[in-house]
């Protein structure tokens, strides 16, 4: 089991060529997203929003907004991951906790106080840096979930996110994180090139 997971991590590659005849069901996509959402996030805010495109006409329209990268059209589906700053709003968060964790009104008030103090001390944790971190962790989980279901994909940011937001009528304040085309792989991917551990790690022993 451990060895399998090591292989799973070691063998991940960005895949950009897909079997264009393969279709993925909405049901399977929902399972992949549900698995990805097990990712951690600061204070369990879960600030990710995902737009799933599985429509060839829309995919064609996205190609020129993606520097003509063909994987956008060839993929069986595309996840576009955004970060929603509303999820860091203290009242919004407290409301979610009240509904899902069955807290008393006293516990909710304490939680609001704690979160307000936390954000006062560390405003960066309710800004774009935090959204990129929380949604980045979600996106990595999403890439793994895609593979766990027998598909492959590539994380991408080389796109015109402003144009994509306009085309798909995405709310103005959603922060674009990644676009992930995925499907049945039709290539082995490029060879792995990585820096050795000694080059990026400092040990304090
Ligand atoms: C933030 C980010 C943006 C990326 N943007 C693109 C992209 O626009 N197009 C693309 O083909 N690959 C893109 N990639 C994939 C990288 O090129 C790839 O992860 C890297 O070369 C390492 O290869 P590997 O994923 O196969 O290990 C992106 C990866 C990340 C993390």
From TrEMBL:
Q: Which Pfam families match?
A: Nitroreductase (PF00881)
Q: Which UniProt keywords apply?
A: Oxidoreductase
Can you give the residue ranges of the Nitroreductase domain?
10-184
Q: Which GO terms describe its molecular function?
A: oxidoreductase activity
Transmembrane region positions? none
Q: Which CDD domains match?
A: MhqN-like
Q: Which family does it belong to?
A: Belongs to the nitroreductase family.
Which PANTHER family does its entry note? NAD(P)H NITROREDUCTASE YDGI-RELATED, NADH DEHYDROGENASE_NAD(P)H NITROREDUCTASE XCC3605-RELATED
What is this protein called in UniProt? Answer: Nitroreductase family protein
Q: Which organism is it from?
A: Lactobacillus apis
């Amino acid at each position: 089991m451990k060895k399998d997971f090591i292989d799973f991590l070691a063998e991940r590659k960005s895949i950009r060529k897909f079997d264009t005849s393969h279709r993925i069901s909405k049901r399977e996509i929902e399972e992949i997203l549900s698995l990805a959402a097990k990712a951690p996030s600061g204070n369990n805010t879960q600030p990710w929003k995902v737009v799933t495109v599985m429509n060839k006409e829309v995919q064609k329209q996205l190609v020129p907004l993606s520097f003509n990268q063909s994987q956008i059209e060839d993929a069986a589906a595309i996840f576009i991951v955004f970060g929603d700053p509303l999820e860091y709003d203290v009242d919004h968060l407290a409301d979610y906790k009240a509904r899902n964790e069955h807290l008393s009104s006293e516990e909710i008030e304490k939680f609001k106080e704690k979160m307000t103090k936390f954000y006062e001390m560390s405003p960066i944790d309710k800004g774009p840096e935090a959204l990129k971190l929380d949604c980045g962790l979600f996106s990595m989980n999403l890439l793994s979930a895609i593979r766990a279901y027998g598909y492959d994909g590539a994380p991408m940011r080389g796109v015109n996110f402003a144009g994509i937001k306009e085309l798909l009528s995405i709310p103005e304040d959603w922060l674009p994180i990644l676009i992930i085309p995925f499907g049945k792989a039709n290539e082995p991917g490029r060879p792995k090139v990585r820096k050795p551990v000694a080059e990026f790690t400092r040990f304090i022993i």
